[in-house]
Write a structure and sequence with these properties.
Order of helices and strands: HHEEHEEEEEEEEEE
Largest sheet: 10 strands, antiparallel
Distance between the termini: 58 Å
Strand content: 35-45%
Number of helices: 3
Shape: globular
Structural class: alpha+beta
Radius of gyration: 22 Å
Number of strands: 12
Length: 176
């Protein structure tokens, strides 16, 4: 039995190598395949009650997951989780430690995560009850990212470049 399984794997491997020798198959380019795999989408992000203007940002799946599951950091140091997140429909929460303090991170959301949702996030010190950060953001899918935009690239409503992920300081994800 083991020999038969090994033989089948060897034959499949030779078949795959033979297919490689046929030359490139017609189809989408590498960058087009990557964009499809990443499901690159353009989203509008607006902080409710903030003085900052709304921005549009080119996202991938991982970035959109971060809309509802924040990863707080400060000064380039991540808040290290102390427990497993508690996940329920429409909510995500965990405790973490940063700079010797313990924090509670809570995110709740309503709406359709595939096109329009509102997310309320809070990061609260468990060691100092007077220290907390909270923000509510509205995210709306606008369609595909414009040609030439990279993941994390963002613009204001007038089309001016705001930043790219490479420009963002590590602490920009969320305070504590």
């Amino acid at each position: 039995m083991r020999t038969a399984g090994w033989l089948v794997a060897a034959v499949a491997g030779v078949g795959a190598l033979a297919a490689c020798g046929r030359g490139p198959a017609a189809g989408p380019s590498w960058s087009e395949r990557q964009a499809t795999a990443e499901k690159r989408e353009l989203w509008s992000m607006e902080a409710e009650g903030a003085k900052a203007a709304p921005v549009v940002v080119c996202t991938d799946i991982a970035m959109r997951l971060g809309f509802v599951k924040p990863v707080p950091s400060a000064g380039g140091a991540p808040c290290i989780r102390l427990n497993r997140p508690v996940e329920r429909p429409g909510s995500y929460a965990f405790r973490c430690q940063l700079a010797g303090e313990e924090w509670a991170v809570v995110s709740t959301w309503t709406g359709d995560a595939s096109r329009d949702l509102t997310v309320a996030m809070s990061v609260s010190s468990l060691d100092n009850p007077n220290v907390a950060y909270a923000q509510t953001r509205r995210y709306r899918r606008l369609g595909a990212c414009p040609a030439g935009w990279s993941i994390g690239e963002s613009r204001d409503r007038q089309g001016r470049s705001v930043s790219t992920l490479m420009d963002w300081p590590a602490a920009a994800s969320a305070p504590p």
